What does this fold into?
Amino acid sequence: MTTYAESLLDQVPVIPVVVLHDVEHAVPLARALVAGGLPAIELTLRTPVALEAIARIAAEVPEILLGAGTVLDADQAKAAASAGAAFLVSPGSTPSLRAALRDTGLPSLPGVSTVSEVLTLLEEGWTEMKLFPAEAVGGRELLKALASPVPAARFCPTGGVAPHNAADYLALPNVGCVGGSWLAPAALLQARDWDAISGLAKDAASLR
Ligand code: 3PG
It folds into this structure.
């Protein structure tokens, strides 16, 4: 079976997870991340402007790896793909959501938080997935425990991953990259401090 997320985990060490409230922030934010050497962004579909933000970034910052996050159902998967997302991320996954992710043809990271969910995804041909909420469900200890019995699964842990623990996650053999919201904090977005965001991106890009 095709593995849709084949190379997604190997693009950048950290995928910036972004909750955007002002669509005017989208393009300068994307440019700031690229300038910092971290050409990836996951726009979460948690705000009314998220799809428009994806469309603007797709049109104006084509060099960034552009994803949609918090994809919860088939309609959102389709809408994100239509807006220009190049990859999709979901916090958890149901059979119908996984089918919808596949139907888009885009690389995707379905979310898991238990061993049985990992095994279910492997049965369906997914080898790369998001562990969410990583810290709350066992974090590095869970990933270490999975590495030996379930070596085929690779993860992007997200949820509680931050500068103090990101490098430790990235050192694990079954972690390809991590996701985190620390690259685009609300205060820096509000202040339009793109240089500070580029600085955070630069630090994150050097984590691996
Ligand atoms: C996500 O959507 O993956 C999380 O909200 C990001 O979690 P964090 O804010 O703990 O980085």
The pocket of 3-phosphoglyceric acid is lined by residues 17, 44, 69-70, 132, 158-161, 179-181 (CB under 6 Å). The two ends are 30 Å apart (CA to CA).
